[in-house]
Amino acid sequence: MHIAIIGNGIAGITAARYLRKLSSDCRISVISSESPHFYARTALMYLYMGHLTYDGLKPYEDGFWQKNHINLIFDHIHHIDFTQQCLHGSSGNMIYYDKLLLATGSKSKKLELPGQELKGVQGLYSLQDLQQMQQHTQNITHAVVAGGGLIGIEVAEMLRSKGIGVSMLVRESSYWNSVLPPEESGIVNRHIEAHGVSLLLNTQLQAILPDEQGRVRAVVTSSGQEIACRFVAITIGVTPNIDFLRQTNLETDRGILVNQFLQTNLPNVYAAGDCAQLRHPLPGRKSIEPLWYTGRMQGITAAHNLLGRQIAYQPRIWFNSAKFFDIEYQTYGHVPPMPLPHQTQLYWQHPNGQKCLRLVYQTQTGALQGVAALGIRLRHQVLEKWMAQQIPAETALTQFRAAIFDPEFSQPVEQALINQYLLQHPHKKLTLTPKRNLWNTIFG
Q1: 104, exposed or middle or buried, with CB in 10 Å at 0-12, 13-18, 19+?
Q2: Distances, alpha carbon 136 to alpha carbons 118, 154, 159, in Å
Q3: Rounded CA gap, 194 and 132, in Å?
């Protein structure tokens, strides 16, 4: 049996690896026009900043693929004949398959504005985008980042590492406040500005102005301000990369529609990762989750189903992580930007104003529903277990030392959280769990 995978991102490569783990005799081909090999997309910024070499982007040595009999094909698939089960490549290749996994990933969203075709105006998602950015940011003094999400702050950090001035346009009243609660968003606002970025809130891109050579020379904001710049990063999010599939019999919406087994409406065709849209997502989860962790889990699930070992996709406890310059952020479970009616939130902030913790629990039952940390690293296995078991928030508070990865912060933070909780619940009594009793929480 020949299994073809279009896309060599985390979903496609994870599927290929697990296919080989599960079966020694199926043929596996991974086709991509982005790069001849799998690379760590999250590390692109570190290549630009000089912290990594190009080879450092590769999680696997070059011989790994041949050793595991995984055929990597560097080609662009421009047409799929689903009836004949044949992929048509730009090189003239015709690749026949028995089973097909579509793992085509995302692409940068664009604004409804003229000027995005100018030199020096782009998004950042692919290796080609990075190469273009390296070229367009040489010998410039100022750049504009339009968009206040995670990609936007990464691009701002990349540019600042080269000494380039940055104006960051954020349409909301505070950075990423559709996700971050007000206190965390405020900390990040101040941190962005402390790193030399001009943060323009309640501001959108209105126009992109060219010079005589067809390169960007300035932008005009929604307030009418003109900002001279030679580079503009459009970082307003990503969208599934499925344009070449729109005029086929494959059912699509924003992404490729799949059931719980990641099957499409067409026989022998599956989809996983950023391009896949679940028809019936679990309550509280989105139909498309363009996250590394989701792509990996869907890749594993797809591998089983491609081999006929039918298992439903079961997302793990919601987890995401990010880095705002040098402040790390982790979130587990459900931590909404504003408390919901049935929830109570406990918030603690370090006196230095750059570290904080937030716990969310069910008001009636006290069950822990979410934890978010800014500037404090948490133990993934502990938090994931707590979320899965929905332990009482009070239990988590008395054992919180087990959840903190940074030992120098554990006891002061744990006691501060308990003190904060007792202010909200003065009739309660909580005592710290002795350190010797926490080993099972950490390693059990």
Answers
A1: buried
A2: 11, 17, 11
A3: 28
For 321, residues 6+ apart whose C-beta sits below 8 A from its C-beta are 328, 329, 330, 331
Between the two ends of the chain, the Cα-to-Cα distance in Å is 41
Residue 345 tokens, joined = 């939130």
Specify the residue for token string 């139909």. Answer: 287
- Nearest-angstrom CA–CA distance, 158 and 277: 31
Measured distance CA(32)–CA(147) in Å, rounded: 28
Residue 134: other Cβ atoms inside 10 A: 13
Distance, CA of 292 to CA of 245 (rounded, Å): 23
- Considering just the CA atoms, what is the radius of gyration of the chain in Å? 24
Q: Which residue type occupies 241?
A: N
Reference 372, options 216, 172, 179; nearest CA is 179
Cβ contacts of 270 within 8 Å, gap of 6 or more: 99, 100, 101, 102, 258, 261, 262, 263, 264, 302, 305, 306
- Domains of the chain, with CATH numbers? 2-107+239-306 (3.50.50.60), 121-236 (3.50.50.60), 321-443 (3.30.390.30)
CB distance 376 to 409 below 8 Å: yes
Cα separation, 219 vs 210, in Å, equals 9
- Residue located via tokens 């070449």: 244
**What tens-digit pLDDT sequence spans the chain (444 residues)?**
999 999 999 999 999 999 999 999 999 999 999 999 899 999 999 999 999 999 999 999 999 999 999 999 999 999 999 999 999 999 999 999 999 999 999 999 999 899 999 999 999 999 999 999 999 999 999 999 999 899 999 999 999 999 999 999 999 999 999 999 999 999 999 999 999 999 999 999 999 999 999 999 999 999 999 999 999 999 999 999 999 999 999 999 999 999 999 999 999 999 999 999 999 999 889 999 999 999 999 999 999 999 999 999 999 899 999 999 999 999 999 999 998 999 999 999 998 889 999 999 999 999 999 999 999 999 999 999 999 999 999 999 999 988 998 766 556 788 889 999 999 889 888 887 776 666 666 555
DSSP-derived 3-state class of residue 171: coil
Long-range contacts at 185-190 (CB < 8 A, ≥ 24 apart): 185/337, 187/327, 187/349, 187/353, 187/354, 187/356, 187/374, 187/375, 188/153, 188/324, 188/327, 188/374, 190/353
| 301/298 Cα distance (integer angstroms) | 5
- Read off φ and ψ for residue 109, nearest 5 degrees: -70, 155
